[in-house]
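Pipeline run #58 for the internal structure catalog. This entry was flagged by the ingest filter as a single-chain record with no existing model, so it goes straight to prediction. Upstream metadata was stripped on purpose; only the residue string is passed forward. Reviewer on rotation: M.T. Logging verbosity set to normal.
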Amino acid sequence: MQTFQGRGVMADGSQPTPPDKALDMFRLRDGFQIELMASEPNIAQPLFLSWDSRGRMWVVHYRQYQFPAGLKVIRYDQHLRAVFDRVPDPPPHGTPGKDLITVHGDPDGDGHYETHQPVISGLNIASAVQVGHGGIWVLNPPYLLFYPDANRDDVPDSDPVVHLSGFGLQDTHSIANSMMWGPDGWLYGCNGSTTTGDVSSAVTKGVRFQGQCVWRYHPKTQVFEIYAEGGGNNFSLDIDAGGRVFAGTNGGNTRGWYFPQGSYSEKNWGKHGPLTNPYAFGFFPPMKFKGDGRRFPQAFCVYEGGLYPKPYDGMILAPNAMQNLVWASQRIADGSTYRTEDETNLLESDDHWFRPVYAGVGPDGSMYMADWYDSRLSHVSPIDDWHKSSGRIYRVIPKGSSPAYDGADLHTIPLADLLTRLQHPNKWVRKRAVLELGWREERSALDTLVQQVNATQSNPGDTHGTLESLWAINLLGGLNRERAEHWISHQDPDVRRWVVRLMGDRKEPIKGLDSMAAKETNVQVRSQLAASAKRLPADAALPIIAALLRHDGDIDDPHMPLMIWWAIEAHAERWDLVREMLEAPDVWQLPLIRQVVLARLIGRYAASATPDELQWCAELLQLAPDAESKTQLLVGLSRAFEGRSIPVLPDALQAALQESQERLGQSGLVLAIRQNNDAKANEIVRTLSDRNADLTLQLKLVETLGEVPMQATQSVLIGLATGRNTIEPALQRVAIASLASYDDASIANSLIAAFGSRISDEHDLRSTACRTLASRPGWAKALLRELTEWRLRVDQVPPDVIQQLRSYDDPETVASVEKAFGKSVTTASPEKLAEIQRLQTLVADHSLQGDPAAGKLQFTQRCATCHQLFGEGQKVGPPLDGYERGSTRFWIHNMVDPSLEIREGYQSYLVLTLDGRTVTGMIAAQDETTVTLRTAKGETQKIDREKIEVLRALPASLMPDGLLKDASEQQIRDLLAYLMLGA
């Protein structure tokens, strides 16, 4: 903190321009003017705005930023994510922060705020506020707080109730943010890119994610879930008039992201962590754009306020705090998603203190902006020199107008008047009326609302207010099966889309969805059918998916192929139903099946690699009706296994894989590598650089280059390994491993630099990179520097890599290893003997029994990656069936001290090659010319004996110490019960 050099826009010593003078510095698009709605001293560091049912404006003052009060920063990682000494208590407990929530009213109805009232103070990193459903909802990570306010006097009736806990605080410019009410009654919010989550409510426990997502929470059911995952540094959530979800981002070359329900979008994988679904096998990019590519459109809203001229309806208005302007971009349908094209900027300012961090449309139809107002913008310096007392709120209005909210309190107006608001020109008013109908429990309005939806059932005319009526019916509990089945044929595609979504949210299948999917003409409705099929029971979902697969044109849609794949993947474990779908006539000829599903489906089963799923892989190959289909399946199979250990395969699957590999082994390019034919180097490089080339051939080429290095290919291998030249994890993983054969110091730097971007924890990329880096003394030192300087977490280094690092004996490396991982605990040490005694005492208490079924899960997580038991697991280490399984003493001694007795044939060896590379593993095979080592991951490396300088046994087992260090006492009992008794 004392030596960090700030990057980006830092405080420059200038002074703020008075609010009235700052107004003169704006230049607006023709036909518009800007008005100051509030400023200091009533406003300071505003981050977020919302409005209540009386049209009053609520403001979050983010004055505590950048660090939570009462916490101590222990260290930072390479992305300046802080590690704090503890989790803060929820307000009002613990150390009070400086964050504040105020409400601003317009009692005389002139469109300007005359009253400014503090409501909640002492908050500690508060990012959003919403009012409704009986009180005030405050997003104050790591918590979502509810302040009851039954009489709506803006004085909370009690201390807050914690509804959610577990949002990350590591980086307070990317915390959970932008909370808003959805028309379905859920609270929606974003999470930024560099914080994690382990979120729990009273009902849902431990929903974990790394980095960016859109989440939602239902106040009644108390269910929390990830709505869509990925994106940029998601801020400024907005939900358009059709209920579609968007968010801004801090990146360039886009105006933001569109998030279909259940979708996965791109992330900066190394920095922001993997997706929650390891079998997503694809992701969405941001919206394509044409225009100003500078970053960043963090603030973002879809204009649907009814006040601006008609061409502005649906336009994206995106303030850019870095460039001191507001973009205006047309939102254009691009298949089932959107693209944008910039028009003339809505406004610009010469005031470099103008930092708009929020944009939204208020009850009067104007776009409002929260201006952070500071000469400093960058968060990356830990020095706190923000201008804490400044902040402004503006609105942009048509020139010469004087807009004002009509003053009606939607919570108290007569029902008849509230119903008329469902057709108001301003989206905010319409949506708020929907919510109030639900919160007021106006069930007497159901007949009127149903009539509104039915009136436009087959009427091609104006359907204004119909979607709002459907939303209100849902909130009032009136969307029953009969109505839903009737309305899936409604002429309004938005109604059809939302009926499908709402029934999917309830995980309640209705009749006719499969036939609807077969004839549905609207691609966004088909997208929602896929999203809802992901949530429905498998027997209801697969017929819908089968119908969607027959829309051949969707193969070219930017989103539909993956939306359909994700729906299939959600039910992949129901092989009986998946197989039934694949046995339908001509299904194997469908473009979506051939080009999207086959390789992913077999890859999904192979990646999971349970005995059942490997058998399903074999059955898939048997089902393949032609060579092209079989080729697609083999591509997926190779993608799943390349660079990883191959488990014991069913005979048919083993034969198919062998045939494929033998065919590729005869490729002229593969032979050229083995023959050191440098004349083919350029052609090899071109093949590896071609994203349309045969993936299986590329994998074989890269694997062979790891065995027989060709110097001319080093650059392309680095590009593949660091993710610059590939989006295929299997190809990237194999390239990382193959680089171990190239003796060049720059390789270590390239791999380490990519840890912050494309070399992520996902798909074994980071663990493979650690193995490559540990293979050479200089590279190992570079890896250790990342660990000892806290840019890489110790828990991201696999146990076999730690063992390999401990094999180096130069003093500098030994000291770094001990600093990162601690001193090696010797066999039969006092520490290990004490742990053995503790565990023996634990299991000796026969009043506390283990659960073998739960123990099987522990075995799968802790042991099956190396050992087989009852036919399940890998064969890296010895199979466990023949051991003294009934003895707790045997199991405890071997798990605590695995090096005490190493079974014959499973001794670890170290190989030091003449070019300085270190490889550790068990000897899998050897002959007069080669030695083949099997690593802890089950991968094999064949090494030419002429290139070996040292081959010696290691005293330590490949099985890591500390196998049970994070296991609870009950988990240990469960594991032992399974090992001794079986499930």
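catalog note: The first helix runs from residue 19 to 23.
catalog note: The chain is about 35% helix and 20% strand.
status: ready for reviewer M.T.
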